[in-house]
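Q: What structure does this chain adopt?
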Amino acid sequence: MSEQVQQSSAKQSEGSAQEKMIEAVGLSKFYGQFTATKDVTFSVPRGQVAAFLGPNGAGKSTTMKLLTGFLSPSEGYARVGGFDINTHRIEASQKLGYLPENGPLYEEMTPQGFLKYAGSVRGMSRAELSNRLEFVTDKCDLSSVWKKPIRKLSRGFRQRVGMAQALLHDPDILILDEPTSGLDPNQNQSMRSLIRSLGKTKTILLSTHILQEVKAVCSRVILINQGLVVFDGSVDGLGASQDDMETSFHKLTHA
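A:
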């Protein structure tokens, strides 16, 4: 076991007394002879914003799909808000907001219609839904496209509609796969500010390729390569500067 992974285990032990909101325990996913993830184990406590990093094909999206119940593990299990995602998916989903990369949307609907539909599916009351629609419209800056068909929206606006859906029911836990993908610099800054604000009270697992984003919004890094966790520690532990982080990333993921 590498020194960095050993440090990771120590950090997890230190945080074990905290409430674990996201847990991955021995998560493995096999497709025949191909291993997408192998024995992925980590936990994220309440109120932490953790970055989930890795090169393309490392197993990030697979792990997120396992954590959210979109895939079933070949081995191991995942808990969200204390509920096993496979055996108590409804209870877990009530605690969870998920923004997948390139998440599917109903393109003939407007953001207004889509979010109202999402709220009704979740069983939100009329008053609760009205309050939350106002919140997500403001936080995700959707007022200018509120009644425009989603199929006519730019990639950035589609991403914000997906983020609004993830936030709609005010979940305790957010799992976000490339949340700033397709956003312009101003929208990017706004989204980062929103994530920082949400991270004060919610647990967030954030997948991104942008190390500057990690530095801006996260306190912890979980780095995966070839389906294995190769680093788990503080952002500064990966590197004091962006250049240092890039150097460490390359060393840990270079075959």
